[in-house]
Specification:
By secondary structure, the chain is α/β, with parallel strands linked by helices. The protein contains eight helices and six strands; from the N terminus they run E-H-E-H-E-H-E-H-E-H-E-H-H-H. 46% of the residues lie in helices and 14% in strands.
Amino acid sequence: MFRLDGKTVAVVGAGGGIGEAVALAVGAQGAHVACFDLNAANAASAAAKIRAAGGSAESGVMDLGDEAQIEAGLSGLAERRGTLDGLVCTPAINVRKPILKYSLAEFDKVVNLNLRGNFAALMVSGRIMTAQRSGSIVLFSSIRSIVTEPGQSVYSMTRAGILQLAKTAAVEWGTLGVRVNAVGPGVVETPLTAPIKANAEWYNAYAMKNPMNRWAQPSEMAGPTVFLLSDAASYVTG
């Protein structure tokens, strides 16, 4: 029940970090994976890794700031494959600054990707999945949606917004066969957290704040995501 054989899954942000780890895991579980990323070469690399391991994959460019590109990418995939069974959307950015030092341009930059971009991907995939009356959408939030710290105001706000977005979509589409969930990682070693890793004291302080006293690897976010995409999670939504 944890396998994804015969399913078509789009992974947005598959060019690196958690997105790539998820794409590889989805491919290993038997799905056809569409690896989308802003960076075409990175997306193609992820798809090549899946195929090299015996899986099925394709790649494409997707800018979450371009609604037409999102529509073309996801609708085109569904038309070619006859279905869109899963969407995983991982991209997010952070500008770490105290509130009084933030500019509205920086605010717009973070909100436009983390909220508007994710909303657009959810909306397009939701149209496809509600029409076919099946599908699973997995958005990525963060531990910062629940606990925060100085310098994380806008990022934490957007991550909390993802939780409410997932819950709302879940109740709107639950009777139409579409499940929507969010994964909220703690501290994970990704390009987004590279500035922290570069500071040993900061890095270790974060590690000591969790029960395992260590950071997670991107691959450790793949298992929960695969579960949510699979039939094993058929009664898990919101």
